[in-house]
Amino acid sequence: MEFQRLLEKKLRSILERGKSVLLLGPRQTGKTTLVNHFQVDKKFTLANPKDRLRYEKDPSLLTSEIEYLAEKIGDRSPLIVIDEVQKLPILMDAAQDLIDRKRAQFILTGSSARKLQRAEIGINLLPGRVMPLRMDPLTYLEAPKTSSLEDFLLEGSLPEILLQKTVEEKIELLEAYVVIYLEQEVRAEALVRDLGGFGRFLELAASESGKTVNFSKLSQEIGISNSTLIGYYQILEDCLIVERIEPLIQSKTRKKLSRAQKYLFFDLGVRRIAAREGRIFSREQLGQVFEQWVGLELIRQIRLLGKQDRLRYWSDPSGPEVDWVLESYEAYIPIEVKWTDRPRMEDARHLQTFLKEYPKAQKAYVICNTPHPLKLSDQITALPWNQLAEVLKD
Predict the structure, then answer these.
(1) What is the pLDDT of residues 27-70, one digit of tens each?
(2) Under a CB-based contact definition with an 8 Å cutoff, are residues 342 and 333 in contact?
(3) CATH architecture of the domain formed by 149-292
(4) Which CATH class is domain 296-392?
(5) Domain 7-134 adopts which CATH fold?
(6) Fewest CB within 10 angstroms: 136, 158, 258, 348, which?
(7) DSSP one-letter code for 78
(8) What are phi and psi of 24, to 5 degrees?
C-alpha cells in the first residue's frame, strides 16, 4: 500500500516548469517513494559508501557522467536524482554548474540541512533555479481513513509505521528509529563528544516537546552548559527532528509576554519512544500531545499550501495564553486546543481576550473532539480535529 502524497502535485509542477528541486525531510518520511513516482534518467545514492567514496575522491566524475547522459539523450535535459546529498555537499557545486548550463535537471534529496547550511562549504545555488520543498510525515488528510486520533498521538505519522498491522511491530520500528537514527546518526553528524550528555538531552527534549524552553533550568538538570544545550537544539533543528516555534510578542497593553521558544518533535511516535513513555496516557497528557499534533498539522499544511503564514504561540505568564496563533500579513488567527467532545465558551475565554487585544484577529477556533462544528460566538468556532484544514482555507 502506498499513500497519496499531497506534495507530489507541487513537485511535478516544479519539474514541468524546468526547474530543479531540493527535497529535504527526516528519514522515513517517504522521500524515496515519492521520487520513484517520477521517470528519472539517473539516480546517485550517496547513502551507499562505495558510491560516496568514488565521488568524494573525484567530484568531477559526476559532471562527466551526466554530460555523457545529456549527449546521449540529446533533445532534453536528463532528470537526475542525488539521494542524501548532504553526505557529500561538494556535489552541489557540480549540480549548480549543470543547471546553469541547462545540461541537467535535478531532484536533490536530503535528511539534514546541517552540512548544507555551513558557510565554509560555499554553496550558492542560483536563486529561482532550485526550489526547496519539505517532506514531512503524513498529514491526517493523507493517512488511511481508518487511522484514529489516538493512533496519531501514540504512534505518530511516519508512513512505514502506519502500515504495520500490530502495535508490537510499530513499537519495534519506532525504537529502531530512535536508536539507529537519533542516537547514532544525528549524534555522529554533530560530532558529539559527551555521549551521555547528548543521550540525556535527547530524552529530555522529547519530554519537553511543546513546552516553553528554559535553557538555564534544563542545562542544570542535564548537567551540560547552557551554550551546549542551545547547540544541541540547533542540531535537532538542522537535522529536521524538531520544529522551532517563536512567540508572538507584539502587544500594546501587555509588557511581559513570554519570549521563550517552543520546540515540537517532528513525529509524535518518535517523540514518545525517545522520551521513554508508555502507551497509557492520562487525560492531561493526551491534551498536551493533542496540542502538539495540532501544531504539527498546521505547520505541514501551511507548507503544502505554499502559504507564508507562520505558526506562533501567545502567553502572558501572569494571565491568559493561547496555544497557537497563525500569523499572516493580513491577520492573526488564534487557536485553542482542548481534549473534549463538548466545547464550551469557558474553553474559549483566552481567545476572547486575544480577540479584544488584537484588532487584526477577526475570528478564532477551538480544535477538539466534537463530532460536528459548533458556533460558540460570532467570532469563535469549535472544529473537530479532522476538519482542521478549514482553518487555513481563508
Answers:
(1) 999 999 999 999 999 999 998 888 899 999 999 999 999 999 99
(2) no
(3) Orthogonal Bundle (1.10)
(4) alpha beta
(5) Rossmann fold (3.40.50)
(6) 258
(7) P
(8) -110, 145
Full 3-state SS string of 302-346: HHHHCCCCEEEEEECCCCCEEEEEEECCCCEEEEEECCCCCCCHH
Quote the Cα angle for 386-389-392, to 5°: 155
Q: Residue with C-alpha cell 500531545?
A: 289
Amino acid at residue number 134 = R
Grid coordinates representing 40 are 528519472
pLDDT in tens, 209-266: 999 999 998 888 888 889 989 988 998 998 899 999 999 998 878 878 999 999 999 9
b vs e for 144-172, b when ≥16 Cβ sit within 10 Å of the residue's Cβ?
eeebebebbbbbbbbbebbeeeeeeebbe
Query: Which residues have CB under 8 Å from 271's CB, separation 6+?
Result: 156, 206, 209, 265, 292
| Cα dihedral 182, 184, 189, 194 in deg (nearest 10) | 100
pTM of the predicted structure, to 2 decimals: 0.93
Taking the alpha carbons at both ends of the chain, their separation in whole angstroms is: 33
Q: If you count DSSP H runs as helices and E runs as strands, how many of each does the chain have, helices first?
A: 16, 13
Amino acid symbol at 123: I
